[in-house]
Backbone:
């Protein structure tokens, strides 16, 4: 009996090999995405946990202007504090060999030799600086690789106004900079921003910080309450210019990495579920129609004594065999895709070791998920077979009775050609099957749109930020606020056409029981180089009598236009006052507030001062300006617009484009599988009708036109449904990309819509050609041998 069952199953699988292959490919796509995304998430998460633990990543951080090291004792006395690391951290400009533009390096002091520190430096090549030398440093691996530097090389940095030629003794990385970005950056630019470590004593001397520190990292006990530690720490550091302590969850690198892990985990469960749902749907369609075609066989089996369960299981086994083929293709494909994704993440998440980890649990889970999806689709068809009695099954299925449709009653069909009339009447008689076909193709089109959604969103951010907000060529950030007269000196520099100052003020904003630590950016009210612009609302003027809040910040504080917020300044005299919310802008980067920079001086109770300047530069003289900026001691960071755009484009090419192409390729497979299956099943179901039409005098072209026209019409009808479905799926993803650093809007480009439609149209065209070839070989006598 088992042998007979296997023989029947293998025969049916071979006879329907084209349809089975299409369904198996859909299953394989779902398994591949499930294995790849979950594997990549696990690889990143486990690497993060191991790295943080191994290098003793801090739990609480704080920055101050300058504080004495004598504070170590009261800080250690805070309940829950296990260890304290007091450091010196400064951003400096650097001249890197071979680089046209100045680079920014974050210089961090190392603990004394032999002391196991918090945020431990992991040296991949070379050695730590010699304590007897004051010109040796360890450079971050990412910056060194991007600039072609290695152990023994040199960089020239401006340390406290003096140019110093520093020797690279080692290349390393730290858990603080898994995602290595500098001030004002969202995407990493490893060519122009890096991290550098130097001995603590050498940095004390270089920056006149003997006996002091400006950066603090704290490791807590397991049972400690981080928020209580932060509150007590703020009280201790208040008089030393503390900008507010914060927990690990708000640390820039960790926040980016955690957000990325959350996104991967959602996608790892969300997208494969759609693929497997389509696979189950496809199997249900295939097997339910197979039951219809095999009514006579089902009746004979039951008449010869086969039980209802045995007959039903045969169709379940058919679905499981299809899944097995998908598993054999999908698991290796998923493991390969996981390696590809981990390789992409390795380019901008820096770990000592980040490798694709093969988890048997993930593979087993993917197989079980696909088996469940297939079982649901197969079981539905099996139930149809089980309900057929031998007498009923051995009778041909009764033809559908004619019922005039709306088109018939309206007289619209009478004016149409007969082939088109037959197509529309057949669809009207079988609305359920037509709806299933449209739904399957629409799901595949929607998945293609989802695949490109992230790329469209980031391009929208770039178009807004660099098309309507940032018009400057160069942004300078000073190492500390400078008098307003500095802009006149900048205007005299080579190639500078226009200068606009800005002021950045760190603040706490409070409203009711909500609070947020952020920055107020003071802009020139009549400025042209840097504007305030919203995604949908256009340009917003700088308010002279209040604050302009980003929509994200306004939502976090629960305020709207006209309401008032309490502003606590975190520098200078640390003034507190109440200000009106003058406007809210739906920008896409950050959660910040804006005001007139002249008002910011009054807010601080100081003479007009600026934190930096925006420059418009003559392109022909840009190189002369960059050379001057490399040696300018008051500048801690130089951001060049064209370099930032190029860096972001490279990041997109490495990540979003590859992932979008993979998802688009998988969705194309689904479209091709669904469309081809629809064509083949329609040919099997209607072979008798089509042969009868040939006998009645219809030409081969007319018969082909009826079948192909019906399926092409279903494909065309599915396209707008697929676009709407894809839009809805993307809308569900938007909250997942709502980060503080950036927010991806719901925007789909024409290119995305075109690339979503083309696979469906192309698959339909190819399937139509294949079916037309089969129609030419149609054996009229064999097809018409049907029992009456």
Residues:
């Amino acid at each position: 009996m088992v042998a007979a069952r296997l023989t029947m199953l293998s025969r049916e699988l071979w006879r329907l090999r084209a349809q089975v292959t299409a369904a198996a490919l859909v299953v394989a796509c779902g398994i591949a995405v499930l294995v790849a995304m979950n594997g990549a998430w696990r690889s990143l998460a486990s690497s993060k946990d191991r790295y943080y633990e191994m290098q003793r990543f801090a739990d609480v951080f704080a920055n101050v202007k300058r504080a004495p090291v004598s504070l170590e004792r009261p800080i250690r006395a805070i309940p829950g504090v296990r260890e304290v690391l007091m450091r010196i951290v400064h951003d400096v400009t650097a001249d890197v060999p071979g680089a046209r533009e100045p680079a920014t390096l974050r210089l961090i002091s190392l603990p004394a030799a032999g002391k196991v520190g918090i945020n431990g430096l992991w040296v991949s090549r070379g050695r730590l600086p010699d304590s007897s030398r004051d010109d040796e440093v360890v450079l971050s691996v990412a910056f060194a690789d991007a600039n072609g530097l290695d152990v023994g090389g040199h960089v020239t940095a401006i340390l406290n106004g003096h140019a110093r030629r520093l020797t690279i003794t080692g290349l390393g990385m730290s858990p603080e900079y898994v995602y290595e970005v500098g001030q004002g950056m969202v995407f990493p630019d490893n060519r122009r921003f890096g991290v550098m470590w130097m001995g603590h004593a050498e940095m004390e001397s270089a920056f006149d910080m003997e006996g002091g520190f400006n950066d603090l990292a704290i490791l807590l006990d397991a049972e400690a309450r981080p928020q209580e530690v932060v509150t007590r720490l703020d009280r201790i550091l208040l008089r030393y210019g503390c900008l507010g302590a914060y927990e690990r969850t708000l640390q820039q690198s960790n926040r980016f990495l955690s957000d990325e892990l959350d996104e991967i985990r959602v996608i790892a469960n969300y997208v494969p579920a759609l693929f497997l749902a389509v696979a189950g749907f496809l199997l249900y369609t295939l097997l339910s129609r197979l039951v219809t075609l095999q009514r006579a066989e089902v009746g004979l089996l039951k008449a010869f004594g086969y039980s209802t369960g045995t007959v039903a299981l045969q169709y379940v086994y058919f679905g499981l065999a299809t899944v097995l083929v998908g598993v054999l293709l999908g698991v290796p494909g998923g493991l390969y895709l996981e390696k590809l994704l981990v390789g992409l993440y390795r380019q901008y998440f820096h770990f000592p070791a980040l490798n694709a980890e093969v988890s048997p649990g993930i593979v087993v889970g993917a197989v079980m998920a696909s088996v469940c999806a297939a079982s649901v689709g197969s079981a539905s068809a099996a139930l149809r077979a089980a309900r057929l009695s031998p007498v009923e099954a051995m009778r041909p299925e009764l033809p559908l009775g004619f019922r005039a449709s709306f088109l018939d009653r309206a007289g619209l069909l009478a004016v149409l050609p007969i082939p088109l009339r037959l197509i529309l009447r057949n669809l009207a008689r079988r609305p359920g099957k037509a709806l299933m076909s449209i739904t399957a193709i629409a799901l595949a089109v929607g998945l293609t749109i989802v695949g490109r959604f992230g790329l469209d969103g980031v391009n929208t951010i770039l178009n807004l930020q660099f098309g309507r907000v940032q018009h400057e060529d160069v942004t300078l950030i000073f190492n500390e606020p400078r008098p307003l007269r500095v802009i006149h000196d900048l205007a005299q520099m080579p190639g500078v056409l226009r200068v606009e100052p800005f002021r950045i003020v760190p603040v706490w904003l409070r409203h009711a029981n909500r609070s947020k630590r952020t920055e107020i950016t003071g802009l020139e009210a009549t400025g042209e180089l840097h504007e305030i612009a919203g995604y949908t609302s256009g340009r917003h003027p700088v308010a002279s009598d209040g604050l302009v809040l980003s929509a994200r910040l306004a939502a976090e504080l629960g305020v709207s236009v006209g309401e008032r917020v309490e502003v606590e300044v975190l520098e200078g005299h640390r003034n507190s006052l109440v200000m009106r919310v003058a406007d809210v802008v739906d920008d896409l980067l950050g959660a910040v507030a804006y005001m007139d920079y002249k008002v910011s001086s009054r807010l601080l109770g100081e003479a007009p001062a600026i934190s930096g300047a925006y420059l418009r530069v003559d392109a022909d003289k840009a190189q002369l300006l960059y050379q001057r900026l490399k040696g300018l001691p008051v500048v801690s960071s130089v951001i060049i617009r064209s370099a930032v755009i190029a860096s972001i484009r490279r990041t997109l090419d490495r990540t979003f484009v590859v992932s979008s192409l993979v998802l688009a390729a998988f969705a194309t497979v689904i479209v091709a599988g669904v469309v081809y299956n629809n064509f083949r099943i329609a040919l099997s179901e209607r072979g008798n009708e089509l042969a009868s039409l040939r006998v009645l005098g219809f030409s081969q072209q007319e018969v082909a036109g009826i079948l192909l026209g019906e399926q092409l019409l279903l494909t065309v009808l599915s396209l707008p449904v697929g676009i709407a479905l894809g839009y809805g799926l993307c809308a569900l993803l938007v909250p997942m990309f709502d980060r503080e650093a950036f927010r991806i809007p719901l925007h789909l480009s024409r290119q995305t819509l075109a690339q979503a439609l083309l696979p469906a149209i192309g698959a339909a065209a190819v399937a139509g050609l294949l079916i037309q070839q089969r129609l030419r070989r149609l054996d009229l006598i064999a097809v018409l041998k049907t029992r009456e």
About this structure: The mean pLDDT is 82.
